[in-house]
Specification:
It contains 1 helix and 10 strands, in the order βββββββαβββ. The chain has one helix at residues 80-88; strands spanning 2-7, 9-10, 13-14, 22-26, 29-33, 38-58, 66-73, 111-118, 121-131, 141-151. Strands 1, 4, 5, 6, 7, 8, 9 and 10 form an 8-stranded antiparallel beta sheet that branches. A two-stranded antiparallel ribbon has the order 2-3. It has 152 residues and is mainly beta. The chain is globular, with a radius of gyration of 16 Å.
C-alpha cells in the first residue's frame, strides 16, 4: 500500500498544495515534484522473515533546500532506530553508521542506492521530503526502484 500525504501551514494560514507536486507517478516513474508542502510516501510490508528494503533514487542536481529522509517503523508506529536508542541510552553514542536511513540533500544528480533492514512482521517504510524557500527551481527526485526482500 502506497500513500502520499501532503500538507503545509505557515504563519497560521493554510497553503493549498499544487496537485502536480509531491509524490506522483508519471509515465511509470515515481517522482517527487518540489512543493511548498511536506510530502510523505509510505509503504507497508508484512515480512515472514527478517529482510530489507533497497531503493534506488536520484536527487536533483540542485538540491539546495531539499531534504529526503527514510524511516522504518513497526506495527505500533515506533521507529526501530528510536527503540535501539532507548535500549542503549547511556551506553553508547549514536554513530554515523547507525544513521544510514537518513539522507539530506546530497546527490549531484547521480543515482544512489540505500538499504534499510526490516524485521519479521509488519513494517511501515516512510520517505519524507521537505523543502524550503531556497528550493525554488529544484528538479524532481526520481525513485527508480524499490525492492523488498523477506516479504510473504
Amino acid at each position: 500500500m502506497l500513500t502520499d500525504t501532503s500538507s503545509s501551514t505557515q504563519d497560521s494560514r493554510v497553503i493549498v498544495c499544487p496537485t502536480e507536486s509531491g509524490w506522483i507517478v508519471r509515465n511509470t516513474e515515481l517522482l517527487y515534484i518540489p512543493s511548498p508542502c511536506l510530502s510523505k510516501l509510505s509503504f507497508t510490508a508484512n515480512l515472514v522473515r527478517p529482510g530489507y528494503i533497497e531503493y534506488s533514487y536520484r536527487m536533483p542536481t540542485n538540491t539546495r533546500g531539499v531534504s529526503l529522509s527514510a524511516v522504518v517503523k513497526n506495527e505500533q508506529c515506533q521507529s526501530y532506530r528510536d527503540e535501539v536508542r532507548n535500549l542503549l541510552s547511556g551506553l553508547a553514542t549514536e554513530t554515523s553508521s547507525s544513521r544510514k536511513d537518513e539522507q539530506s540533500g546530497g546527490g549531484n544528480g547521480e543515482w544512489q542506492k540505500k538499504r534499510l533492514e526490516l524485521r519479521t512482521g509488519p513494517n511501515v517504510i516512510s520517505w519524507s521530503v521537505s523543502t524550503s524557500r531556497d528550493s525554488a527551481g529544484a528538479g524532481a527526485i526520481v525513485m527508480a526502484r524499490i525492492d523488498v526482500v523477506g516479504e510473504q
